[in-house]
Design brief:
disordered N terminus, two-stranded antiparallel ribbon, globular, 2 strands, mainly alpha
Length: 151
């Protein structure tokens, strides 16, 4: 992925048209990912590979809303309400993967995103019950309906 720096601010990275995220925030965001994945695997290379996949997917220029700034906002909200969340790790994984597949013409983005999440979280060694929950949470974003399980 080509990285383009905003000439007006060397502290920002171009994400998509009119969408910037500060490099510091992106580093913090990546740090959140690294902290999360390190709970489930010692394989730093795997965590980095999966992070690159996430960053690349959400940084595509054709994404006008489902982009890295959207992800950043959701992660911020998860931490804002973390005291009310029973399983923050699963919520965070669901956020990271909920729109990893985004094709405006497709009607099964959530299902495809959930499949990728299941595969990647299995590689990380996440417990199967958390993977199932994450899959359900991602599918629930299809119509932006509230999940029926408690969280």
């Amino acid at each position: 992925m080509q990285r383009i720096i905003d000439p007006n601010s060397l502290s920002k990275r171009f994400i998509s048209q009119n969408h910037y995220i500060s490099l510091k925030n992106l580093d913090n965001f990546k740090s959140t990912w690294n902290s999360l994945t390190s709970k489930y695997t010692d394989n730093i290379e795997l965590g980095e590979e999966l992070w690159q996949e996430i960053e690349n997917a959400y940084s595509n220029s054709y994404r006008h809303y489902h982009n890295i700034t959207h992800l950043e906002s959701m992660i911020d909200n998860a931490f804002k309400y973390k005291d009310k969340i029973k399983d923050l790790d699963t919520i965070l994984f669901s956020i990271f993967y909920h729109d990893i597949i985004y094709d405006i013409k497709s009607k099964d983005n959530e299902e495809k995103s959930a499949e990728i999440a299941v595969d990647r979280l299995s590689k990380l060694g996440l417990q199967s019950d958390k993977i199932v929950k994450c899959r359900k949470q991602i599918i629930a974003t299809k119509n932006h309906h509230k999940n029926t399980f408690s969280q």
